[in-house]
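FIELD: query
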Amino acid sequence: MDDTIDFRLRAATEAELAAALPWFRGTDPDGAPCWLAASHHHALDPIGPLVLTPALLVPETGEQLEPAVCAEGWHANLRLAEAHPEHAAIVVACAPLVVHPTNPRRAFA
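FIELD: result
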């Protein structure tokens, strides 16, 4: 994709992100809602909750001693081509969800 812009996004919930970005929603073969991860004009990495500290487990049994600690919100990365037919509307929709992490845990290569 030439001439792209990358967004790191965070919403309170996956449903909130889905409502803000309907261009990237579809249905799977069973009719369940799903993310459209790629097209000629975008790439989407729906991350979900970011784990800051993994859960502490007993190796032999898998018993959880301490739960994972996650960052607030539901996260996704979006790479958007300027050629996307809805580019302007998507940029506006992303604006209130954009975050600028100091040390991103995931990014496009």
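FIELD: remark
Helices lie at 14-20, 87-94.
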